[in-house]
Write a structure and sequence with these properties.
single chain; mainly alpha; 0% strand
């Protein structure tokens, strides 16, 4: 391995170290109360080192969402590649992929949903903003493709696939945030999976052509 390759690997290792520390700190203190100094202490690095990798706390926060979107997009694209499933079965697979991705990393998904609805996006570099925009488009595009197939094959009512994808994503993110806020108040109660199943079942019936009951 050459010097350049070794330095790149070391830089990637250090970046992952910082992101792992950020995930722990954001989880325990929340975004608003967390500082770059807190994250540096957790990672056992100097605050100055963090700024070599991330412009500010907002960029570090958003970078966690990039990883989540990359994983989710890959899962959703795999659903589209399952040619043995009809559109209704693919829709069910989409919902399962969404929940599985969330369950694997709930904090990151909650952070991502908050990020998408906050002014934090305005503090990101153009490069990171472009990456998030591209990945968000790919995620919605993968969902829209299932709905487009369903409309074309007569499974779903004739409406714009992107509108269906927006509603589908909004339903998922809204319920996750709402159930999470309820769980904070009463930690012993966790009805997220059951609530999502009901919501997606109602949604699926609503867009099914000729069977809206």
């Amino acid at each position: 391995m050459g010097i350049k390759e070794r330095r790149e690997r070391e830089r990637e290792t250090r970046r992952n170290q910082i992101m792992a520390a950020a995930k722990r700190v954001f989880s325990s203190k929340g975004f608003n109360r967390s500082t770059m100094e807190d994250i540096a202490n957790d990672a056992e690095l100097s605050p100055g080192t963090l700024y070599l990798y991330f412009k500010n706390k907002e960029e570090l926060y958003a970078s966690l969402s990039v990883e989540a979107l990359q994983t989710l997009t890959k899962r959703l694209e795999e659903v589209n590649e399952k040619n043995d499933l009809n559109p209704e079965e693919k829709l069910m697979a989409l919902t399962e992929s969404l929940y599985a991705s969330y369950e694997a990393n709930p904090l990151t998904f909650i952070n991502m949903f908050h990020l998408q609805s906050s002014i934090t996006l305005k503090n990101l570099s153009p490069e990171l903003m472009s990456t998030i925009k591209k990945l968000s488009g790919s995620t919605l595009g993968a969902c829209a493709k299932v709905f487009e197939e369903g409309v074309n094959e007569g499974f779903f009512i004739d409406n714009h696939p992107v509108a269906f994808a927006d509603i589908f994503w909004g339903l998922f993110s809204g319920i996750v945030l709402w159930e999470e806020s309820k769980r904070i108040i009463d930690y012993d109660k966790d009805y997220l999976k059951e609530t999502l199943e009901i919501a997606f079942r109602i949604f699926g019936r609503g867009i099914r052509k000729g069977q809206n009951s």
